[in-house]
Amino acid sequence: MSAEQSPGGQRPQREWLWNEQRRGWDRNPAYVAQHASSPASEGKVNWRGLLWLAAAVVAAAYLLNAWSTTRVEDRHSQEGSTAPAGTNSENSFSPTTSAESDGTVRAALERAGVTPGMVTDLGIVGDEVGYGISTSVPMNQEQREDFAYAIVLFCRDIGGGETSWENSLNEDLFSGAELSDAQRLNDYARTDFCPLVRDDPTTPAAGKPSAAAGASPVLLTAAVAAEGRTVNVSGSASLPDGARLVITLSRIEYFGFGDEKHYGQSASGSTVVTDGRFSATLVDDQGKARAFAEAYNAGEPAQRQIRVSDLVQVQVVFDPRENQSSAVISAVGGEDAQILESSPQGAEFGTRTDDPYWRLELESELLLPFEP
């Protein structure tokens, strides 16, 4: 691949990725790492390693922000740190990761049953196989703790059936890791690290209102039809007039030989409910998927290439905390929207924070041929 295709000659990264677990869009840690200024390094870049480190930094920042007693009340302020994953710091304990507060990474590791020795051993393996900064630049203590916490979350995803070791290995290979390196880290996590990780204790958030007994569930329905590249969405919602819905059209893609679905946004828009009805029209921008896949796949073996499918997903979301009027928020019981829990389309959002809430989500897939 030529150096003109992306910064530093590395493969381009999409800025936003679909998070299947919480059904929402996340900033791609690999994109953050790729577009952050960092010192030049020699040798092949292991993008899986950078992704793990960037994900660890994002997870750590999110954890600290969610637990801090002085955090800003607006949840949108949580999109904060975009520091490059490979930023060096002194090899010492940072005051922000001391065990004095329940909101620190180290405290979270302690609750997960992860000892300092486990953090050290995992960090050594990560450094040796290139999942840290590089094989020649070891992670410092803070980075090792962040990396361990990211693996803790991954262990829990494995235990909860959200992903599998096979998918993990395939994604590592797709992201540029050597087979022997990917096998060693995944095997170590599977046999030595994850079995010792405690489950995440689930405790209900304090002060959340209960749904009214006997209240009729809020319903969201939609019909989706395609005409050429135009997708028409229409439906009903038992919400007040003026309730805003966000509608997203995404192309379904696969990484390498895996069968796990990934979503690349091709169009989005919003509409409002009027007399219990809504409608919207989106146009599939196939150029986005085509340009990204061509640039990403250039010079890559088949097991590391993106496969763009003929399927698209349409998602309709009602979010009580996204541009809703006070009347609409009041109608769903406030910003926590607890009454949406009884809806067939109800989905709890932000379950890994101390401020979860409910919203409506509806997904539909349809055939919309992709023209390479």
Plain-language structure description:
It is built from 9 helices and 10 strands. The chain is of the alpha+beta class. The chain folds into 2 domains: about 5-195, no CATH class; about 220-365, Immunoglobulin-like (Sandwich), CATH 2.60.40. The two termini are about 20 Å apart.
In short:
Helices cover 30% and strands 22% of the residues. It has helices spanning 29-35, 47-67, 105-111, 116-128, 141-159, 165-174, 179-193, 286-297, 326-331, and strands at 16-19, 24-27, 220-227, 230-237, 244-255, 262-272, 277-283, 306-318, 346-349, 357-367. The protein is built from nine helices and ten strands.
> What coarse outline follows from CA principal-axis ratios?
flat
Q: How many domain units?
A: 2
Secondary structural class? alpha+beta
How far the N terminus sits from the C terminus, by CA atoms, comes to 20 Å
Number of strands: 10
The largest pleated sheet is described as: 5 strands, antiparallel
The count of helical stretches stands at 9
The main sheet orders its strands as: 6-5-8-10-9
Our estimate of the beta-strand percent is: 15-25%
- Average pLDDT number: 75
What is the rounded Rg?
22 Å
List the helices and strands in order.
EEHHHHHHHEEEEEHEHEE
Which bin fits the share of residues in helices? 25-40%
Low-confidence stretches: 1-11, 34-45, 66-102, 203-212
